[in-house]
Design goal:
By secondary structure, this protein is α+β, with helices and mostly antiparallel strands. It has two helices and six strands; from the N terminus they run E-E-H-E-E-E-H-E. The chain has one domain: AF2212/PG0164-like (Elongation Factor Tu (Ef-tu), domain 3).
Length: 97
């Protein structure tokens, strides 16, 4: 399964020692992913391959109980390479593994 979407990066800093940056998958794509991909171990996460700009990496998306959507962590190395940060929108290509 593959999907393309645009989303804004945001900060989750509930753990004061670490700052995590995520983007939220759109509700319709989250629902499709939930229906067509069985969750793996670890919080109902789903393994994915992501392309954002010229960066491609493998990670997992995680269900967010507040929004009902999956969230995608965007690591610092990608944000630095692509020159994006919280508040910026990014075009994403995601493939479930």
């Amino acid at each position: 399964m593959q999907m393309d979407f645009e989303a804004e990066l945001w900060v989750w800093d509930a753990r004061r020692a670490d700052t995590w940056v995520f983007l939220t998958l759109p509700a319709d794509l989250s629902e499709t992913l939930r229906e067509e991909t069985p969750p793996g171990p670890g919080f109902g996460s789903v393994r994915v391959e992501v392309t954002l700009g010229s960066s491609t990496w493998r990670t997992s998306v995680f269900p967010d109980s507040e929004s009902g959507c999956y969230v995608l962590p965007v690591k610092k190395a990608v944000r630095t390479k692509e020159r994006i940060g919280p508040g910026d929108s990014a075009q994403v290509h995601l493939r479930a593994l």
